[in-house]
Design goal:
Elements lengths: L1 H4 L1 H26 L3 H52 L2 H17 L1
Helix pairs in contact: 3-4
Length: 107
Amino acid sequence: MIYKIGLLPAFFYLSFLILLTFWLGTLVRKKLMADDNQKSTFFVEATLLAFLISFTFSVAAGKYDQRREVFNDEINAISTAIYRIKLYPDSVYADLKPLMNQYFSTG
């Protein structure tokens, strides 16, 4: 689904959902908790959970960008190799074309 809507709108959508659930959680907490000690413990746990979730999304976004970059580098290398093979004379090009086809079929 992220591929269809883009990474930035997905980030804002998920941020909105996190804030909404946090707000709903505070409403429930106000009704269930009356002790101040429980409130401070809850805020510490909620803060740690928020850091954990943000770190997880940060790592996931980094891996997505890294995978996309590697894919683009491979495509650029293949297209460069094709253009360079076409610069050779026809006799050499005829020998190299089956090798490139073999490379494409194994990948």
